[in-house]
Specification:
This protein is 40% helix and 20% strand. It has 256 residues and is of the alpha/beta class. A hairpin with a 5-residue loop joins strand 2 (34-39) and strand 3.
Length: 256
């Protein structure tokens, strides 16, 4: 997934109090600037503007809200770098939910521990391989999951047997588009109620010194970094960067 650095045209004192308001601000100030470039199903790179990505974020947020995700909901986000990751991330943040990210190379035991320890009731997974890892010993609070890639009937049956409701990303986005536009307006209005002190994400350490440790980062944690990041990263509008670090990595998320 290739993404450009956002345009910097606001002074530090103009930064909003949380991350979803920042993305909204960028979508309004530079709607046609490219926000993402990613390969489609045929392997051809497609570009997506800030306006388009923001609309997708609101659509997905509407769908997530429709299945029960609200402010404060802890949601596992287990996926490697891909276009849908950013949309899911900001959709959750726009609702005031807390995402708990991790990569696909994690073992079943690690995923089960992280999801259980973080009290995740919802999960967003890249593919059925990750879903299988999690369902080997289903975390007790996990009740609804979303998979970025398409599901087979066998996987759906397995989830039903495990007592978990499952959705695929494309179908959920289609449902989000059918919801009243007033739902998106409500979500945008609600963004202003997300405080800087509210938790945005819980990033777990690698666990090389025992079990992984969850690091709770607030919206203000990220805004504080964004206030000074230009002192070490000099960019201009339209610059493109290649996402190489794991997308859930602490530094990578600051750049995102």
């Amino acid at each position: 997934c290739i993404m450009p650095i956002m345009e910097r045209e606001f002074t530090h004192t103009d930064l909003p109090i949380n991350l979803p308001l920042l993305f909204k601000l960028r979508a309004e100030s530079c709607p046609e600037l490219i926000a993402q470039a990613a390969k489609d199903r045929r392997g051809v790179f497609r570009t997506y503007s800030f306006k388009t990505v923001y609309e997708e974020i609101l659509t997905f947020a509407s769908a997530l809200q429709d299945i029960g995700i609200t402010k404060g909901s802890h949601t596992a986000l287990i996926s490697d770098n891909r276009k849908e990751w950013l949309i899911a991330d900001f959709a959750l943040l726009s609702l005031g939910a807390v995402d708990v990210p991790r990569g696909c190379d994690s073992t079943a035991a690690e995923l089960q521990y992280i999801i259980s320890f973080a009290d995740c009731s919802y999960g967003i997974f890249e593919n059925t391989a990750i879903l299988d890892k999690v369902l080997q010993k289903k975390p007790p609070l996990l009740k609804k999951v979303i998979v970025f890639e398409d599901l087979t009937s066998d996987e759906i049956d397995r989830c039903v047997h495990a007592g978990v409701e499952v959705y695929d990303y494309r179908s959920l986005m289609a449902c989000g588009k059918k919801l009243p536009l007033s739902r998106r307006t409500e979500i945008e209005t609600g963004m202003s109620d997300i405080k800087g002190s509210d938790i945005a994400t819980i990033i777990f350490t690698s666990g090389t010194t025992n079990t992984p440790k969850g690091v709770m980062l607030t919206h203000r944690n990220y805004m504080a970094q964004l206030e000074v990041v230009d002192k070490v990263l000099t960019v201009k509008p339209g610059d493109m960067w290649l996402s190489v670090l794991p997308v859930w990595h602490s530094f990578e998320r600051v750049v995102q």
